[in-house]
Amino acid sequence: MKLAELLNERKSVKTEIRKLKERLHLAAKMQEGDNTPAESPDELKETLIGLYGRLSELIMRINRANMENLVEGETLMELIAARDKSLAIGELLHGLAEAATPKPERFSRNEIRYVSTVVVQNVRKEADTYAKAAREIDNKIQAANWSIEVA
To answer: For 107, which DSSP code?
Structure first.
């Protein structure tokens, strides 16, 4: 099985867990006078416990594959960390540029005028550089995910 298939299965299991949790919470109570809930909370609970077991197995297999497989001399885990770091810094810088961009907030000349303390154009360029790095790393990760066989 390809690593990408495991990742897709993990996503599917997480989605199923989220849906079943909602159904379990709905089935946890019923109107007074009703004989039985629409669904059995015990059955939903047991199904959820099984899904959490499957999720745990998938996570261990995925993490093991991320630690054992190299792409251009780095483990997938290292690439994932580098991508996440670049994404976070890019988002931080985009937010800074947005906050520093002058907005028409004054209604009269008597109100306080705010000025930017950073050069917005430079911050945006730096943010774009990090976003591009994150995309390039993600391309490597995605390519590896479809080529790596996981036992």
So the answer is: S
Beta carbons of 7 and 138 less than 8 angstroms apart? no
Nearest-10 Cα torsion for 116, 118, 123, 124: 20
pTM for the whole structure: 0.84
Per-residue pLDDT of the chain (151 residues; tens, 9 = 90+): 999 999 999 999 999 999 999 999 999 998 888 888 889 999 999 999 999 999 999 999 999 999 999 999 999 999 999 999 999 999 999 999 999 998 876 667 777 778 899 999 999 999 999 999 999 999 999 999 999 999 8
At 38, give phi and psi (nearest 5°): -60, -35
Query: H/E/C letters for each residue in 132-150?
Result: HHHHHHHHHHHHHHHHCEC
Locate 130 and state its tokens.
């990090």
Angle 3-27/120-147 helices, nearest 10 degrees?
Answer: 100
DSSP 103: -
Question: What's phi and psi for 125, nearest 5 deg?
Answer: -60, -45
Strand partners, 75: 70
Amino acid at 67: M
